[in-house]
């Protein structure tokens, strides 16, 4: 009798242990994640870095199966797929969704305003992170910004652009709602093309010049093979942000501990991406020079004029949409607040010293 009881108890304990093990094994989530970027565009490395880091940090609870952009669906469809839960996550550049809400435009990049460190500061300490979550939250998503690249290359093509006067009548590939409005004020025409189409558009003369990303990304995309001239700085995108869209239901299914690991991976990837892209840009700039590409820089007077037009475009957009106004209000408030320390530490500061910002009072009047 004692032996039977002992055996029964041992069997019960084993069963409990097995059930616990089975529950743990089944608790691991598997996500499908894709990107707006195909394999041949270097920006995909930011998405891959985050996915790999998550698998290292949270592999017992979550495994992300990452697929390059275009392998599951066109890049234009990843927003809807994540919103509806067809996939759990997708890497993106927020500006692609500005047609759904113009606030996505400054969440992605600014014309002649933020540099990479400004975005880092703003996201981490001045309320930016909360605004990403608020805007994407309108579409049943959580958003983790995890990539920052600094100033973009500028316009590359077979037609020299030496000043803003040379933009008159030019057809230029340009991304972004606000960017297109500024270009229009400068006399140019915005042409919308996917990143993978810019090379051929320059080669065939479909556009007078084009831009896509940082020098590192643009060189690997082959621009040095088809462009003779490069107009810099890239005022149209003074910095860019990338991140991951996560379906809200998939996010809520994770434990708080796992969610925190995903946030930690995002912060780590953000720091890595900024340094990685700056190293790539430095090396690629030399490669463009070695390839014989002529670099023309806009004058201080030209850049001041661009800033004036940018300020007007920001104010106009703010009064068209409350979310757009809310994001820019937060950005300009950050720049004004940070100036207390930033300007007295110049030129050893970590951000742009600016004396001509959009009017905070006029933006707030549009809220």
From TrEMBL:
Keywords: Signal
NCBIfam families cross-referenced by the UniProt entry: TRAP_S1 (NF037995)
Gene from which this protein is expressed: dctP
Protein name: TRAP transporter substrate-binding protein DctP
PANTHER family linked to this entry: EXTRACYTOPLASMIC SOLUTE RECEPTOR PROTEIN, PTHR33376
Signal peptide: 1-27
Keyword check for RNA-binding: no
Pfam families: DctP
């Amino acid at each position: 009798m004692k032996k039977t009881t002992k055996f029964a108890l041992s069997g019960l304990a084993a069963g409990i242990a097995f059930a616990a093990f089975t529950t743990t094994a089944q608790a691991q989530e598997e996500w499908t994640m894709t990107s707006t970027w195909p394999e041949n565009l270097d920006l995909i490395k930011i998405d891959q870095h985050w996915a790999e880091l998550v698998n290292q940090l949270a592999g017992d609870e979550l495994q992300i199966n990452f697929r390059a952009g275009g392998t599951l669906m066109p890049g234009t469809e990843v927003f809807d797929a994540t919103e509806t839960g067809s996939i759990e996550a997708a890497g993106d550049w927020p500006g692609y969704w500005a047609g759904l809400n113009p606030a996505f435009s400054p969440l992605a990049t600014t014309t002649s305003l933020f540099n990479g460190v400004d975005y880092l500061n703003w996201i981490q300490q001045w309320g930016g992170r909360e605004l990403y979550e608020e805007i994407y939250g309108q579409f049943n998503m959580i958003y983790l910004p995890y990539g920052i690249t600094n100033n973009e290359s500028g316009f590359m093509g077979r037609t020299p652009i030496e000043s803003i006067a040379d933009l008159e009548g030019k057809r230029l590939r340009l991304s972004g709602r606000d960017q297109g409005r500024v270009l229009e004020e400068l006399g140019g025409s915005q042409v919308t093309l996917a990143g993978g189409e810019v090379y051929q558009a320059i080669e065939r003369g479909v556009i007078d010049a084009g831009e896509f990303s940082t020098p590192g990304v643009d060189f690997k995309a082959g621009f040095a093979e088809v462009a003779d001239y490069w107009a810099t700085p890239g005022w149209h995108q003074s910095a860019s942000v990338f991140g991951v869209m996560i379906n809200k239901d998939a996010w809520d299914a994770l434990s708080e501990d796992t969610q925190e690991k995903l946030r930690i991976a995002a912060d780590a990837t953000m720091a890595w991406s900024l340094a990685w892209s700056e190293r790539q840009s430095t090396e690629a700039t030399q490669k463009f020079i070695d390839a014989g590409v002529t670099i023309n820089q806009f004058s201080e007077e030209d850049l001041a004029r661009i800033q004036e037009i940018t300020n007007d475009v920001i104010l106009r957009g703010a009064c068209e949409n409350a979310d757009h106004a809310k994001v820019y209000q937060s950005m300009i408030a950050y720049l004004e607040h940070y100036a207390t320390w930033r300007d007295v530490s110049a030129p050893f500061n970590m951000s742009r010293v600016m004396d001509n910002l959009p009017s905070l009072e006029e933006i707030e009047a549009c809220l």
